[in-house]
Write a structure and sequence with these properties.
single chain; 721 residues; alpha+beta; Rossmann fold; Topoisomerase I, domain 2; Topoisomerase I, domain 3; 5 domains; seven-stranded mixed sheet; seven-stranded antiparallel sheet; 20% strand; EC 5.6.2.1; DNA binding
Length: 721
């Protein structure tokens, strides 16, 4: 009997699809049923070959070998997951399998995951595509009833291949060129570098900022304070002479009411979440990193099935989702919002084109709850926080506008304009959801046009202008999504808007993580600071790589390829020409790199000086010479909490000298004494868990950085050189 092979992206998704399709027989890497066999990738199983796969000389990094521009790119099996690849290939080639259903993530990278496996395995069988936006049983069942022809996604695949090849040509060549030129492990990329440039430019603006004193005039009358409005909205006064002249002119004068305007205003609910806006809110409210939010979202999507596909750049839903909205409201059981959901179900939902618009739905619609009942008690605290953010926004979107009455009173004192604004809520609307009620003006005084106003006091307040705020992950994500202010030309601003900024919703979290992992930026109490290494990199990289326009132009072309409007081959030819230009620019650059973290300690292997490097898990000493490769752990961050201040402690020393140290309050305790104390308190730390944890920490310290070129760069130290 013939069967259909279903290829999912992850084991967890594969198991859920297998359950829905009745695949109850378990085998190595697959689930087997009467009609379907479900298997899975482990993320990518296939990747583009490293440079050394093309020529022996590329095993060594030499400037003379650049640029590397292989004519035909090779696909290779990733060693760590090769076992699963061969399992998938064996089933794809099985005579029983007559058709393959691609059920990887419905997007560009998901298409690449599956198609590369099929291409590498050299399988020539009919392909269908499962394209769904949630992992509920109903969504999976409906998806399999409406499978698409795989050919409909050929252009999306070509777009994904073009993106991958372009990043290989530009990224690997530029990384090797910078590293060879300066003998420092450096990397650059079309999204990474413009993002770093934003942070460096902001820091420079803060450094150069000179605060200026300003003054604001106030006029008191019968318990009302009027604010000076100035000319053309310029209320701040930066000139003391002008300030004093105005005060002298206005003292002991009466005011006259020039206008009283009362308007009713409506504020529509915020739009539904796409991934970036959700990451921004999660960072602002809970301090979650973009990466953390995405990870929590994946759990809510794949494991709990209570939210729709997370990697979406759309804030809209399509018309066919509207009939399911009340069922989605019914699934909301969280105590904080259950009452609001029930109330909405009993009323007519407020649905506008700010939420429902078929033309503005991209590959996936906005992030909203599914019809699956949410058991929030099973969730972790952080998972619940993200889920409730999504629920709250969903309820807001379906609610009426916030309506208020605004009264603006303007008075003239010797022809100088002052004003006061009153606000009175008429209908809380969407702002009634949760704890966000608007405050009304505490004091409302009635004024009539042309009436005289007695002024009891004229005075000024003073302040200092403030520098631009340092980036948080939230504000950085916002500027990555909308970087128009970094480009002067209007046509180019339009281009950036059309492609949705730099990076994609699926990659921005990884880009920020790469900046941490390459020691280009640091996070201090939620604020992002560029390191000296990061500052120098943007000076060493060719100018075009710093601009958000490069990635915008790429994304526009990649979108055209996915729509059949452009050819992959033409794009790649352009990329090769551009790569040659970049390498030549690096070769001819006279700028040098300077270390800021060099120590007086010498490397025991080569005699060079060691650098002190900080990472998320602690500190290390690494050799200044990248070809030496020596490194030694100085301390390691642990999950052990200080008994005095409850902060996480670091561990220093080796063997029986291992000691916990709290960097916050200075508490110290040897590991042996720590374990003995815990045992006495009947809270002994399990030795096996300690060993596992220490092995994990060692593995984290030893592994190469998680970036697009990790395999190629694995033999080198990714350290703060």
């Amino acid at each position: 009997m013939s069967k259909i092979l279903v290829l999912a992206e992850k084991p967890s998704v594969g198991r859920e699809i297998g359950r829905v399709l009745g695949c109850k027989q378990k085998a190595d890497g697959v689930l087997i049923g009467p009609k379907y066999v479900v298997t899975w990738a482990l993320g990518h199983l296939i990747t583009l070959a490293n440079p050394e796969n093309y020529h022996e000389r590329y095993k060594h990094w030499n400037m003379g070998d650049l640029p590397m521009l292989p004519e035909k790119m090779k696909l290779v099996v990733i060693k760590k997951t090769s076992k699963q690849y061969h399992t998938v290939k064996r089933w794809m080639m099985d005579k029983e399998i007559k058709e393959i259903v691609i059920a990887t993530d419905a997007g560009r990278e998901g298409e690449l995951v599956a198609r590369w496996i099929i291409e590498k395995a050299n399988v020539r069988k009919p392909i269908k595509r499962l394209w769904i936006s949630s992992q509920t049983d109903k969504a999976i069942q409906d998806g399999f009833k409406h499978l698409k022809d795989g050919k409909a996604y050929d252009n999306l695949y070509h777009s994904a291949v073009a993106r991958s090849k372009a990043d290989w040509y530009v990224g690997l060549n530029l990384t090797r060129a910078l590293t060879c030129k300066h003998n420092v492990q450096l990397s650059a990329g079309r999204v990474q570098t413009p993002t770093l440039q934003m942070i460096v430019s902001r820091e420079e603006a803060i450094r150069q900022f000179v605060p200026a004193k300003y003054y604001e005039l106030k006029a008191d009358s019968n318990h009302v304070t009027f604010n000076y409005l100035g000319k053309g909205g310029h209320a701040r006064i930066f000139d003391e002479v002008k300030r004093d002249k105005l005060l002298a002119l206005l003292r002991h004068q009466e005011g006259v009411v020039k206008s009283v305007e009362t308007k009713t205003k409506k504020v529509p609910a915020p739009q539904a979440y796409d991934l970036t806006t959700l990451q921004i809110d999660a960072n602002n409210k809970y301090g979650f990193s973009a990466k953390r939010t995405l990870k929590l979202m994946q759990q809510l999507y794949e494991h709990y099935k209570v939210v729709t596909y997370p990697r979406t750049d759309s804030k809209y839903i399509s018309q066919d989702i509207v009939p399911t909205l009340k069922e989605r409201l019914e699934s909301i059981t969280t105590k904080s919002y259950k009452g609001y959901a029930r109330s909405l179900m009993q009323s007519s939902l407020h649905i506008t084109n700010r939420f429902v618009d078929d033309k503005k739905v991209t590959d996936h619609h906005a992030i909203i709850p599914t019809e699956e009942v949410a058991f929030v008690n099973d969730m972790s605290g952080d998972e619940r926080k993200i889920y409730e953010l999504i629920v709250k926004r969903f309820l807001e979107v379906l609610s009426k506008p916030y309506v208020y009455e605004e009264t603006k009173v303007k008075i003239a004192i010797k022809n100088e304009c002052f004003g006061v604004t009153y606000k009175r809520t008429l209908d809380q609307g969407w702002k009634s959801i949760g704890d966000q009620k608007e405050e009304q003006s505490k004091q409302v005084v009635a004024f009539k046009s042309h009436e005289k106003v007695k002024i009891s006091n004229i005075y000024y307040t003073e302040g200092l202008t403030t520098p631009p705020s340092r980036y948080t992950e939230a504000t950085l994500l916002a500027d990555m999504e909308n970087p128009k202010k970094f480009v002067d030309e209007k046509a180019m601003q339009t281009t950036l808007s059309q492609v949705g900024g730099i990076g994609t919703v699926a990659t921005r979290a990884d880009i920020i993580e790469k900046l941490y992992n390459t020691y280009y930026i640091e996070n201090k109490e939620g604020k992002l600071f560029p390191t000296l290494k990061g500052k120098q990199v943007v000076e060493l990289v060719p100018p075009e790589m710093k601009s958000p326009l490069l990635t915008a132009k790429w994304e526009m072309t990649l979108t055209d390829i996915s729509k059949g409007k452009a050819k992959e081959s033409v794009f790649i030819d352009q990329i090769k020409t551009y790569t040659k230009k970049l390498v030549e620019q690096v070769k001819s650059d006279a700028t040098t790199f300077k270390h800021d973290n060099i120590t007086g300690e010498k490397c025991p292997d080569c005699g060079g000086y060691l650098l002190r490097v900080k990472n998320k898990n602690g500190e290390m000493l690494v050799c200044k010479d990248r070809e030496c490769g020596y490194k030694r752990k100085v301390n390691q961050l642990t999950n052990a909490r200080c008994p005095e201040c409850h902060k996480k402690m670091i561990m220093v020393g080796e063997g029986d000298k291992k000691t916990f140290i709290c960097q916050n309050c200075g508490f110290k305790e040897k590991l042996q004494a720590w374990n003995k104390r815990k045992q006495t308190a009947n809270q002994k730390m399990d030795k096996r868990q300690v060993n596992q944890y220490m092995k994990k920490m060692k593995k984290e310290a030893d592994k190469p950085l998680n970036n697009a070129f990790a395999d190629s760069l694995s033999k080198f130290n990714f350290n703060k050189d």
